[in-house]
């Protein structure tokens, strides 16, 4: 059979494609038209949502007022102060003022003459004679605290006087700063007083743990529990080391004693008493003396049985 030419092959393929298209089913249905959905009309008067964060409806303000204030123990802090001021007072609240600076400030702010009640009241002599020494000493500490508090209030009032009279603003700021310093030092002093009050009631083995503690939100620091755990761990390790040393040194001590003993048989049963001359042994008066065998025989024979010896021949 002769081969087809290229033109015959192309015409054959075109004829085959036309037959396949004519035999295939034709879909003449129109495409569906998608209509846009219309949004629902908004509610003209929506009801306000009165539910709280937990989903419960909020109570009326009058009802809340009738219920009273919350008694939650969570401490609430006020508005923040300037960062520069906070950096000034925080170290003073921990360590307090140096002794010389504190004395100078207290001398500068004496109690005003027209407000003498700012001075700490003195203890009556009759009461002082009736109470114990410990009570009087405790009262002296409280007097010093009250006196310092009065000096701080005096410094604040000096600043108010300057502001009321319209004088130098810088001087008023200086007085207010000194008032804050005095009160911050008093705050630190009361913290130390509380520590001294509590420390004698603690175990002596526990005192060295809190000696270097620094206060924060708690009196002895938030990391106190970690310090206690670390101290107990160190104590256990020390006991383990101590036991191992005692076990290793025990047999060595016994062997040394046995090797150096020699013929030594121990101390004498009776100690010698050297009280006479010449180093002779003194017989105790309470010690009983037993006679010898010859003395016993001579004492048993009668006196008549003893014959005198014959004289020797001359």
Automatic annotation (TrEMBL):
Spell out the Acidic residues composition-biased ranges.
32-46
For bias kind Polar residues, which ranges apply? Answer: 283-300
Name the residue ranges with Low complexity bias: 255-269, 302-314
Q: Where is the composition biased (Basic and acidic residues)?
A: 1-18
Which residue intervals make up region (Disordered)?
1-63, 239-314
This protein is called Uncharacterized protein LOC106118506
Which source organism does the UniProt entry give?
A: Papilio xuthus
The gene behind this protein is: LOC106118506
